[in-house]
């Protein structure tokens, strides 16, 4: 009787595919989370900024600058942290800026002044900041809208 012959098939190669479905699910969850939290990250006081063509300010993204806002009604706001919506007296802001600058002298200070605020008020604020030890102040503007 003849011996049965078995065919020997070629060895199967491993499948080298990555299942990306779990990654897509994670990405979509993260997208939804970021879409929900992004509007909450925007903070500050609503100020009608003057429109000027200027280069953007170079700043360190890890360092949160001090922003002093001056609204048209003459109220001052110190924007750092969560309490930026409460108006403060100018003397209180100057004292806080002075204390913060003692701990971090390189921290940038920006002024966000409403377009209806007089030049004299901005200069007075800058003079008081200079007296508090602030050597460099940046002014925040918005780019003009092209119609």
UniProtKB/TrEMBL annotation:
<comment type="subunit">
    <text>The Tol-Pal system is composed of five core proteins: the inner membrane proteins TolA, TolQ and TolR, the periplasmic protein TolB and the outer membrane protein Pal. They form a network linking the inner and outer membranes and the peptidoglycan layer.</text>
</comment>
<dbReference type="InterPro" id="IPR003400">
    <property type="entry name" value="ExbD"/>
</dbReference>
<dbReference type="Pfam" id="PF02472">
    <property type="entry name" value="ExbD"/>
</dbReference>
<keyword id="KW-0997">Cell inner membrane</keyword>
<keyword id="KW-1003">Cell membrane</keyword>
<feature type="transmembrane region" description="Helical">
    <location>
        <begin position="20"/>
        <end position="42"/>
    </location>
</feature>
<protein>
    <recommendedName>
        <fullName>Tol-Pal system protein TolR</fullName>
    </recommendedName>
</protein>
<comment type="similarity">
    <text>Belongs to the ExbD/TolR family.</text>
</comment>
<comment type="function">
    <text>Part of the Tol-Pal system, which plays a role in outer membrane invagination during cell division and is important for maintaining outer membrane integrity.</text>
</comment>
<keyword id="KW-0472">Membrane</keyword>
<keyword id="KW-0131">Cell cycle</keyword>
<keyword id="KW-0812">Transmembrane</keyword>
<dbReference type="InterPro" id="IPR014168">
    <property type="entry name" value="Tol-Pal_TolR"/>
</dbReference>
<keyword id="KW-1133">Transmembrane helix</keyword>
<keyword id="KW-0132">Cell division</keyword>
């Amino acid at each position: 009787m003849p011996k049965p012959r078995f065919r020997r098939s070629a060895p199967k190669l491993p499948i080298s595919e990555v299942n990306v479905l779990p990654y897509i699910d994670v990405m979509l969850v993260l997208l939804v989370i970021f879409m929900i939290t992004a509007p909450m990250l925007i903070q500050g006081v609503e100020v009608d900024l003057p429109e000027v063509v200027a280069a953007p300010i170079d700043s360190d993204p890890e360092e949160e600058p001090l922003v002093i806002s001056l609204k048209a009604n003459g109220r001052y706001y110190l924007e750092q942290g969560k309490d930026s919506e409460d108006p403060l007296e100018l003397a209180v802001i100057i004292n806080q800026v002075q204390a913060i600058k003692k701990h971090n002298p390189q921290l940038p200070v920006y002024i966000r002044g409403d377009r209806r605020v007089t030049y004299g008020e901005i200069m007075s604020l800058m003079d008081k900041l200079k007296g508090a030890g602030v050597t460099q102040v940046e002014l925040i503007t918005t780019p003009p809208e092209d119609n």
